[in-house]
Amino acid sequence: MLLAVLVVFTVFGAQLLRIQGFDASATQAQAATKRAGVETIPAMRGRILDAFGTVLAASYERRTITVDQLAVRQYDPKGTPDGVVGAAIRLAPLLGSTVEDVVAKLTGDKQYAILAKGVTPTVWHQIAALGINGIYSETTSTRVYPTAGTGAALVGFAYGSDGSGATGVEKLADKTLAGTPGKTVFQRTRYGAPIAGTEEVLTAQVDGADVRTTIDADLQYVAQNAIAETVRKSHAQAGYVIVMEVKTGRLLVVATAPTFDPAKPASVDPALRENRAFQEIYEPGSTGKIMTAAAALEEGKATPTTPVIVPNRLHRSDRSFSDHNEHRTLSLTLAGVLAKSSNIGTMLVGEQLSPQTIDGYFRKFGIDSPTGVGFPGESPGILARPEKMSGSQRYTILFGQGYSLNAIQAASVYQTIANGGLRVPPTLIEGTVTSDGSVDPAPATTPVRVVSAETAAQVTGMLEEVVGPGGTAPQAAIPGYRVAGKTGTADRYVIRPGFKGYSGYTASFIGYAPADDPRFVVAVTVQAPVGIHYGGLLGAPIFKQVMTFALQKYGVPPSVAPAPKYPLTAPDAATDPRTLKP
Amino acid sequence: MTPTPPPLTRHPARPMPGREPARRAALRVVPAVISSSGHVVYAAVCIALCVAGLVGLLMLNTAIGQGAFELQRLQTQSQQLADTAEALSQQLDSYRSPAALAARARELGMVPAQSVGFIRLSDGVILGAAEPAKAPVVPAAATPTATATTKPGATPTATATKPATTTKPATTGAKPVATKPTTKPAH
């Protein structure tokens, strides 16, 4: 008897020892998981700000209201009716829904069903105060874009309502913006309802940091409206305006049209959500001529007053080249060649340099290499190596055809000249806002010396003639300020099903002001306009509008010194020994 | 202490301890009176202390309870205020957006300036091209009172205000740019 008791108790003891001693942690964990519920607390996504703190994107807390349909039946308030109907009558006005709809959602046998999404915390507290059985909430957040369509393709959007960044700055700075979600554990009843007061933070969530961009939201708005109107009026495929700060390379505006509502990205064609300023590459046409001119000046092959005899046709390689208009043989200076935007004149100047030399300058200007912004989906463009070029290509690249770039690169070329020959790679992110409100700056870029300050000043002087009475873009002139710029009307290379070749035009105007101390580069590009397609007529008015606003907002004093006057024609070209002839 | 041996000699002058009180205990009258009144006082003090302790404890509990209620009330209030602050900052973000500001400016009859001019404060010289801003040209069909915009004698402010009250000139090209805040402010 005693032996039997001893054996039984030994077994009991051993079992006790096993459960309490050896397997204690496992058993406890098992019990805890049965009892404990885990809720993920989402990290609040950081905001995207402009250079002045205007909010371009921000996240706000929202609640998803859930219901335990078994528990809500037990609702027994003081007044009648009770149960599901009573709950619905009280909930409907707060949820902005009809009683019938709420009744439908509350009825059933599910212990978990979603009643409403995107409810503000204020409304949730009112709901919670009702004390209805079985009504719970989960914390979520929503992404809001206060500037809406202004710069939607630039700011981008986030997956879902507030997930990871899908495009634009949302994707570019996703790591900084995202943060780390936290975990809260709570004990729950047999039915899964949390027991009040048992919540315990397991890991605190780390909210994402705010990202400050270099964008000026006011200027972006003005540019966006201007380009949207022109794209609409000219039935163009797309258009973009880039504004860059000359001394720093900071992008103040990247406006693209057509745009979309970032709050409803799913409602538009994915192609429309791209940022075409970074992603679309095109042949620049005449705006590219300044690289040829700058290279020739820098290499000492020409000066702004070098005479050039420009015939109506010029045969090179296997092609006969022409200018935009038919003309008799002209005697122009290099300044005149740029002011009138002559392809033949530019070829005569550019062919003084070897293809390798031209290639070297183009690449230093940033052609065929990424902008450095790291924008999602960015395309660096195409520039064939001299040894791989077709026979006529070495001539076409001199006047901006036969290679391609994106709009940011095109603006960067003018930033280089405006900044005295020093190219400062463009930047879009100023930095991350730290917890004390200061900005932790993004890594600095390394400027590249492309041409000398003297060459740059000469190019600027010649570009001032473009907006003068003898140039192609008097529409870009701003009273009181010296403006330098260049028009471009390029043949547009398109690849679409069943067609590959040139069709339509790219109209552009890129310029900077004040020419005596440049502050801003404004680059306007209109893709495939219908009807009028001259850069001087489509691009220059937008340039003027956006530049005027920028000069005003930043309080830039008007130009004082008079512009250098270069002669556009060379009457004694026939006798001048420097003359470049066909 | 205990191992210390007792002294071998005694001082005869020293009285035996306890002997005298024992002798006095025989006189019962005075101690009885004293002890009975002492017990009552003692009991009273004990009861008073007990009551005071209990009352104190009760008050302490009440105070803690009230503190808890106050804490909960303040926590709720803090939460509500935080929620209100967030709702307001969301509203502010949408009011601060350039599109909303431009719309408000148009409502007030303002028009964008077409030229840039500055006054140099040191000598009062006007720099740049300071011209009165004109309202953007609106197609005649869209302007019910077209005369107001073309009237040459009108003051700059008058020409500026007219089109804004009759039409919305600046919204013509702004199709993609929503002038309304995209989100409903929380209430």
User: How many separate helices of chain A?
Assistant: 19
> What quaternary form is this?
heterodimer
Give the uncertain stretches of chain B in residue-range form.
138-187
Question: Based on CA inertia axes, which overall geometry of chain A fits?
Answer: elongated
The overall pLDDT of chain B, averaged over residues, is: 67
Distance between the termini of chain B: 83 Å
Give the beta-strand count of chain B: 2
Order of helices and strands of chain B: HHHEEHH
Rg from Cα of chain B: 48 Å
Record field, number of beta strands of chain A: 21
CATH architecture of the largest domain in chain A: 3-Layer(aba) Sandwich
Structural write-up:
The complex is a heterodimer of chains A (582) and B (187). In chain A, 32% of the residues lie in helices and 23% in strands. Chain A has 582 residues and is of the alpha+beta class. In chain A, a hairpin with a 2-residue loop joins strand 19 (484-496) and strand 20 (499-513). The mean pLDDT of chain A is 89. Chain B is mainly alpha-helical. Chain B has two domains: 31-96; 98-170, no CATH class. Chain B starts with 18 loop residues before the first helix and ends in a 21-residue tail after the last helix. Chain A binds chain B through residues 54-55, 58, 60-61, 120-123, 125, 142, 144-150, 217-218, 220-222, 224-226, 228-230, 232-233, 257-261, 263, 478-481, 548-549, 551-552, 555-558, and chain B through 76, 79-80, 83-84, 86-87, 90, 93-94, 96-100, 102, 112-118, 127-129, 170, 172-178, 181-183, 186-187.
Provide a quick synopsis of the model:
The complex is a heterodimer of chains A (582) and B (187). By secondary structure, chain A is α+β, with helices and mostly antiparallel strands.
